[in-house]
Request: fold
Amino acid sequence: MNDSRDHDKRIATMTFASVYPMYIQKVEKKGRSKEELHEVITWLTGFDDKKLKELVSKKVTFAEFFEQASINRHANLITGVICGYRVEEIKNPLTQQVRYLDKLVDELAKGKKMEKILRSA
Reply:
């Protein structure tokens, strides 16, 4: 139980700016674009490119990042395993939101079609 709280705290205090370049690298290495990555992030968070750039430059934590986000109402349709965790079973809301983003980036990098990534009811 303690490990889970430590993990959640570590995720909350990690800066989005420290992970963002890795997201770009991951998708571009697999032939996808930064624009497609931004489309995925916008779908999940509601952030436009200007806001995303601002949050990266301010080096906000994931906690601050998701506090400002308007999570897509279909985000609960994101399921599956990422980083060894089944996203739909994660209890901590912030950790779940970060893993949603990780899952979407992973699907983009794996070549999944955008209409499948950007879920709808």
